[in-house]
Amino acid sequence: xxxxxxxxxxxxxxxxxxxxxxxxxxxxxxxxxxxxxxxxxxxxxxxxxxxxxxxxxxxxxxxxxxxxxxxxxxxxxxxxxxxxxxxxxxxxxxxxxxxxxxxxxxxxxxxxxxxxxxxxxx
Length: 122
Known about the structure:
By secondary structure, the protein is mostly beta strands. Helix content is 0%, strand content 56%. The model has no long low-confidence stretch (mean pLDDT 97).
């Protein structure tokens, strides 16, 4: 069964780049029905979808994040990563990595990491 774990610095200074890694176990990130996703939840707000990298390496980003977001992967380590540039205190949030498994159009499962707190502050 797929398990995910976020890791990275919990504190980032304004104007710097936020970098997080998600380590996946239980299946390969290249298996051809997974979409590997980054989502965040600012304090007092709902979930915000950032983007994903598909099993093929194709990426897609929310329009609100596209200009400063990069999602990548390292298949040898079975990891995928998030980079969010030019951060401000508004980027403070709990960041989650997750997997969407789509075996068929009516067979969809979601797997979530536990989340990691990232604070943007000087």
